Amino acid sequence: MRYASSAVLLLASAAVACGGRTVVVVPRAPVSAAAMAELRVDPGRGRDLFWGVGGREYAPPADAVYTLKGKDEAGFSVSYDVVDPDGLEWSAKVGPEAQTEVVVSRILWGLGYHQPPIYYLPSWRLQSGEGTPTLASEARFRPKLPQLERLEEVWSWADNPYSGTRELKGLLVMLLMLNSTDLKDSNNSIYRVRDRWNGASTWYVVRDLGAALGETGTLFPRRNWLDGFEREPFIAALDGGAIAFGYGGSHRELLAMIGPADVRWAAQQLARLDDRQLHEAFRAGNYSPDAAGRFIRRIREKIADGLALRVDRREED
């Protein structure tokens, strides 16, 4: 690994005041196995990262005509609320985030973190009024399933039931490795789950994942940009237990919770995904084999950087 000449001080107190809010760094109390399963379950080996958690069963029919219910242009990407011929409602997000959201969601689910079903369609037909349906551009499709009730409340990165746990800090590291540049709390959701799906009846989810796989920054960073993803460093500097990340996005105060043991744990989990699984995740997002290969090579380099960190044995406990 090559690092820049500067480093930041890793704050190790139980709660650190940064950027106007307090970031909880170590657990206030042990988290039970049942509670932890609401954030992450053991994924085992060989999860299907092409179809994801919903499998083929919940995939959007590619040849259907989707009827427009509403349109949201407030965020970076335009989203449509549509209904398929069977009456199921979908959220369809268009633009460069459509591909990245599918890929990042697949990878997180492959590592045991809960994700709602999402899929990619390279084109689809939209009925927005009278007349012939129009052919719409690529989109990320997310079904609004009755068994997944999204609550109005969100959960906070800085203070939540999993604060200080390896699983939460590892999740943040994984997002850094994928150049997720939008770490605001409003992207986090809680779902009530009917019939205990994927090992839990409640899911804590990082849901809006499209601002990734490009450069990080605070003012309209470029998403889904292979050259930027390859160029931006993961670990910029090291000084003992202090880590300076290459992350340039907002909410950098959250990085205060991360130590070398967290980075290495996250790298160990990502290393469990084989190349076939990662290629399937990128295929689910409609990336070419060449582009997928370059993204995966860079991810493997970041995994190697994380595995190479020297960790105090006390930190691994």
Walkthrough of the structure:
The chain is an alpha+beta fold and 317 residues long. It has one domain (15-58, 101-115, 146-316). It is built from eight helices and 14 strands. It has a seven-stranded mixed sheet, covered by helices on one side. Strand 4 (79-83) and strand 5 form a beta hairpin.
Tell me the radius of gyration.
20 Å
Task: Indicate the overall shape.
Answer: globular
Structural class label? alpha+beta
The overall strand count is 14
List segments where confidence is low: pLDDT < 50 over at least 5 consecutive residues: 2-13
Distance between the termini: 26 Å
What's the rounded overall pLDDT mean?
91
Please report which band the strand proportion falls in: under 5%, 5-15%, 15-25%, 25-35%, 35-45% or over 45%.
15-25%
Secondary-structure element string: EEHEEEHEEEEEHEEHEEHHHH
Multimeric organization: single chain
Helix coverage percent: 25-40%
Order of strands in the sheet with the most strands? Answer: 6-9-5-4-3-7-8
Largest sheet: 7 strands, mixed
Tally the helices: 8
Number of domain modules: 1
